[in-house]
Design goal:
Elements (H helix, E strand, L loop, with lengths): L3 H19 L3 H7 L16 H7 L5 H9 L3 H24 L14 H7 L3 H28 L5 H10 L29 H6 L3 E2 L3 E3 L5 E4 L3 H11 L6 E5 L5 H8 L4 E6 L2 H9 L8 E5 L2 H11 L5 E4 L6 H15 L12 E4 L8 H17 L2 E9 L21 E9 L2
Parallel strand pairs: 4-5, 4-7, 5-6, 7-8
Antiparallel strand pairs: 1-2, 2-3, 9-10
Helix pairs in contact: 1-2, 1-3, 3-5, 3-6, 5-7, 6-7, 7-15, 10-11, 13-14
Protein name: Arginine N-methyltransferase 2
């Protein structure tokens, strides 16, 4: 039987935690968190304690104006500094108690989004670092499950149950982390890889879209890909590999550089058909590999194919696919003595993970750099300004904006040492 009194009690508890967080009242908040979660949310605003703690730092314009009028700007700045320090301690406490870095409020903002909007750099970086820790934990849990999740007979399962009494098994489901590694919105089946490969593609002058109207590749990316091509193949006569042809933007630029060998891996039948119609199979040095890179690349490694430049840009794949590519295969495909100067080949990829929200983009930027370093690569980043795509009408007729940021961080990777 539903008890309305329970709802009232729960709501009062939530409001108490939110108020303590907004007031940066550490003792009260610590006491409340002993019997409640750091992830409660206000039913109207969607605020969590993290949202409340950060939003409370927004300066009051009336107070600022009054301080200027009374010549007390220095006092106001000092008070603001103290408030930020108190907020920092509050945010740290909340993260220590399991606060989720990317919960959304009613306006679709994460706590980090609020910190960025208010120019609160220190609080924003705390949220980014928390995101990196959480996503790395999720990744490691996935790897752990793969290691221990092999087939076993029923007898083994029974023995484990008997021996494991009193032990707690930790799984990915126990960690409240939103997986933002997919380009697609969560639950969007149209951008799952098998569905994408089975969809009918539409080629327009400035874009490639799938059945659902998702932008697979768009002409505005040309500036970014041209710069990648310049860094990966800075001289004629090099050996290049591109994974994911799409509209053929970067492959067209690489052809201009007169490569010695130009390998292209493409899985979608509509793209392969268009490639043949455009004569890609007859271009100098071009070798087309039909199929998913997961099926093609092991054969290239087995044959000992080496490249001076490798670019990776697939659609409808999670981040772990990119990580698998550079962790397992780039090491065997990239010539350590290649390149125009013999100092080693270079690897690049379209860096669009989480590009619909700045904090997610920053979190994944740090994660991929760490994973690349662990795999033996040093990464150089170049910042490129992206024009206002809304203003230019780039998203008209496209179901989902996969890029909303002002800056693109272009990665170029080479072997460490």
């Amino acid at each position: 039987m539903h008890d309305p009194a329970f709802d009232i009690e729960t709501d009062l508890s939530t409001q108490s935690i939110l108020l303590a967080a907004a007031n940066h009242d550490i003792p009260a908040l610590r006491n409340l968190l002993r019997n409640s979660s750091a992830n409660v949310q206000d039913s109207e605003t969607g605020f969590t304690p993290l949202h409340a703690a950060i939003a409370a730092c927004e300066p009051d314009e009336d107070e600022k104006t009054a301080a200027q009028a009374n010549g007390k700007e220095a006092d106001a700045k000092e008070a603001g500094k103290e408030e930020i320090e108190a907020a920092t301690k509050t945010v740290k406490l909340l993260f220590e108690n399991g606060a989720i870095w990317n919960d959304l409020d009613a306006n679709g903002e994460t706590p980090g989004c609020i910190a960025q909007r208010l120019g609160l750099t220190e609080l924003y970086e705390l949220c980014v670092d928390a995101g990196v820790r959480a996503e790395l934990l999720l990744s490691r849990l996935d790897e752990y499950q793969l290691l221990v999740g092999g087939d076993s007979d029923e007898e083994d399962d029974e023995d484990e149950e008997e021996e494991g009494d009193g032990e707690v098994e930790v799984t990915a489901e126990d960690v409240e982390i939103l997986d933002v590694s997919q380009e697609a919105a969560q639950g969007d089946e149209s951008t799952e890889n098998p569905n994408y490969l089975a969809s009918n593609l539409t080629f327009d002058r400035d874009r490639l879209t799938d059945d659902a109207g998702n932008g697979v590749m768009m002409e505005w990316e040309t500036t970014l890909m041209r710069r990648s091509a310049e860094l990966l193949a800075p001289a004629p006569g090099l050996r290049v590999l591109n994974v994911g042809h799409g509209m053929g933007i970067i492959d067209g630029i690489l052809q201009e550089k007169q490569p010695k060998a130009h390998h292209i891996i493409e899985a979608h039948p509509d793209v392969l058909k268009r490639m043949r119609e455009q004569g890609w199979d007859k271009k100098p040095g071009v070798v087309i590999h039909e199929g998913r890179w997961q099926d093609v690349v092991p054969g290239l490694v087995e044959k000992g194919e080496l490249f001076d430049g490798i670019y990776f840009d697939t659609f409808a794949e999670e981040y772990k696919a990119l990580r698998e590519f550079f962790t397992e295969y780039v090491i065997g495909l990239l010539d350590p003595s290649g390149g125009p100067d013999g100092e080693g080949g270079r690897f690049g990829f379209f860096n669009g993970m989480g590009a619909d929200r700045q904090i997610v983009y920053d979190v994944y930027g740090k994660i991929v750099e760490m994973d690349l370093f662990e795999a033996g690569f040093d990464t150089e980043w170049e910042t490129i300004q992206v024009p206002d795509l809304d203003e230019q009408g780039e998203w008209q007729g496209v179901r989902r904006k996969y890029w909303v940021l002002e800056e693109y961080r272009l990665p170029t990777c080479s072997f460490i040492g």
